[in-house]
Amino acid sequence: MDKLLIRGGKPLHGEIAISGAKNAALPEMCAALLTADPVKLTNVPRLRDVSTMRKLLANMGVAIELHGERGGITFEARDPVNPEAPYELVKTMRASVLALGPLLARTGRAKVSLPGGCAIGARPVEQHIKGLQAMGAIIDVEHGYMVARLPEGRTRLKGARITTDMITVTGTENFLMAATLAEGTTILENAAQEPEIPDLAEMLIKMGAKITGHGTSRIVIEGVEKLHGCEHAVVADRIECGTFLCAVAATGGDVLLHNGRGDHLDAVIDKLCEAGVDITREGDGLRVRAAGPAWNHLKAQSFRTTEYPGFPTDMQAQFMALNAISQGSSMVTETIFENRFMHVSELSRLGANIQIDGKNAMVEGVDKLSGATVMATDLRASAGLVIAGLVAEGETTVDRIYHLDRGYDQMEVKLRALGADIERVGE
Ligand SMILES: CC(=O)N[C@H]1[C@@H](OP(=O)(O)OP(=O)(O)OC[C@H]2O[C@@H](n3ccc(=O)[nH]c3=O)[C@H](O)[C@@H]2O)O[C@H](CO)[C@@H](O)[C@@H]1O
Ligand SMILES: C=C(OP(=O)(O)O)C(=O)O
């Protein structure tokens, strides 16, 4: 199992490129199931989740060709598509549930393993099931699988008005993809507005789908009989960008993040600027400057995670690591996932002063962390621990970085290019 060894205390300087977004690439790979034509994605990040999704699609019979240039991958889902997502693959990546909508729309059948919970929460998928049932699917949960089909005599899902009980990102994506090939109009109320959703919608429109309202809470989809192939560049990863902004804020330095989309990160950038970090648009990205380690000059910021355009839950751990070494106290409130404070006990092992009370974490800034061995528990917790390790005195070992590899494209290579003393070691 790989680990990261970090010798903290180095400021970050230079420039790197932000990769394509995991949370856009995964649904967009599934969208290739909606047509028998070739679909080419570019700017696909090199991630473990992308490899898992490739395996999942290959298992369905999708032909996949890697181009090597600019993260290009072509998918060709020729008939017959095997509409099954087995537990062995789904258990390592919850986003496998994104195959459910496209499989049903394309083949009228799907057998997708229930994803189950993960370290950050129970993460049920009953809204996905409820919405697809409203579109005419018959879905039974049997032996840990969602087994879905269309009623006798029907060949297409039917348009429906779907209002989910809560805002769900992958739920919205499942309905959006399913509705493109449904008969009639689908209206998604209470739709998620995360930038990965309009990016997926733009791709589907290139494939011939009729969609309006994407990027708002009401999306309208006019179903069409057939979709065709397209080429689409995956939008830049706002969470990777935010993670590097926090890393530079923590260590101090001056870094240009090519492809960084400040317009997708307003809530995080506002907090960083209030803390005292200097962030400006430059060329095709963002420049971030911070004068020395956070404890010298940054003011801790309270925040509350909410759906987009609010503060993203996927940035909570990284910003908490920054608060832990900024001046003053702050309160971090997690409203999306019920168990997303697993990094707190590990940050405490490095010397952070954080108390949890239900959904709130009270952070008292300290002016020093000291390196230790810590264990990554989930993807963004790992990123928070890396940020803490970059400023901690001495050596920090971050164990179980397979979590990090799920969602960061060569993070340690990019950090090393910026001057960090970080290396990957295997066992
Ligand atoms: C691959 C992907 O894009 N993952 C993102 C997606 O996850 P994901 O789409 O799984 O997260 P959701 O937006 O669905 O979850 C939001 C909340 O709704 C709950 N819920 C959701 C669906 C459902 O049927 N029932 C239910 O109770 C969840 O448990 C959670 O508490 O959005 C999350 C919230 O921004 C991000 O942290 C993840 O990075
Ligand atoms: C929680 C996350 O992802 P996933 O939904 O793929 O688990 C994340 O990206 O932080």
TrEMBL record:
Reaction(s) the record says it catalyses: phosphoenolpyruvate + UDP-N-acetyl-alpha-D-glucosamine = UDP-N-acetyl-3-O-(1-carboxyvinyl)-alpha-D-glucosamine + phosphate
EC numbers for this chain: 2.5.1.7
Residue numbers carrying 2-(S-cysteinyl)pyruvic acid O-phosphothioketal: 118
Binding site for phosphoenolpyruvate: 22-23
GO terms assigned for molecular function: UDP-N-acetylglucosamine 1-carboxyvinyltransferase activity
Active site: 118
Organism of derivation: Brachymonas denitrificans DSM 15123
Signal peptide: none
Lineage: Bacteria, Pseudomonadati, Pseudomonadota, Betaproteobacteria, Burkholderiales
UniProt keyword terms in alphabetical order: Cell cycle, Cell division, Cell shape, Cell wall biogenesis/degradation, Cytoplasm, Peptidoglycan synthesis, Pyruvate, Transferase
Domain of life of the organism encoding this protein: Bacteria
Record flagged with keyword Heme: no
Subcellular locations according to the entry: Cytoplasm
Gene of this entry: murA
Binding site residues for UDP-N-acetyl-alpha-D-glucosamine: 94, 123-127, 314, 336
Record-given protein name: UDP-N-acetylglucosamine 1-carboxyvinyltransferase
Gene Ontology biological process terms from the UniProt entry: cell division; cell wall organization; peptidoglycan biosynthetic process; regulation of cell shape; UDP-N-acetylgalactosamine biosynthetic process
Pathway: Cell wall biogenesis; peptidoglycan biosynthesis
Its biological purpose: Cell wall formation. Adds enolpyruvyl to UDP-N-acetylglucosamine.
Domain (Enolpyruvate transferase): residue spans on this chain: 7-414
